[in-house]
Specification:
Elements: H1 2-23, H2 31-35, E1 37-42, E2 47-52, H3 56-62, H4 83-96, H5 100-117, H6 136-165
Antiparallel strand pairs: 1-2
Amino acid sequence: MFEVLAKQIGAIIVRAIQRQFTLQGHRLTGKLNSSIEDIVTLTVTGAKIQIVMLDYGIIQNRGVPASRIPYDQTKRTGAKTSKYIEGLKNFARLRFGLSGKEALNAAFAIAAKHARQGMPTKGSFRFSKTGKRTGAIDAALEDVDSKITSLTEQYLETIIVENLAA
C-alpha cells in the first residue's frame, strides 16, 4: 500500500518539476523534461522516492556563477575542442538555426557573456513565464506540498479506518 502512495507522490513531483522547468523557459528539445522520472523503492518503514534527471537539469536548477564558467577569452589554451563550446554551438544551432562558422561565432559570444554574467544571463529571463530561471525544483516542491500532504493524510486515514474495522 505504501508503494501505491509513493508512486502517486513521485508522479506528482515529476509533473511539477517538468512544469516549472517549462515555465522558466528551459525547454529547447524536451530531453530534460523527458528524462525526469521517479524511482520508488520499498523500505522496511515505508518507501523511498528518488527523482532522477539528466545531469544538466541540476545546472539549470542552480545556475552557474560567472567565476565557474569554463571560458576565458583572454587566454588561449591551445585545445582543439571544448565540450563547453561544442555544447553552445549545438545550442546556437537549435535555438537560432545557425550552422557552421555562424554557430561557432555565436557559441563564443554566448561563452563571453556567460563569463561576464554567469548562467542564467540577464537576457535569458525573457524566456521565463515566472520571472525566474533557477530554483525550478524547489518551486515545484512548494507547488505540490499541500497536495502531497492531503494525499498522505487521506492514505493514513484509510489505513486507520481499515484497522479499526478489522
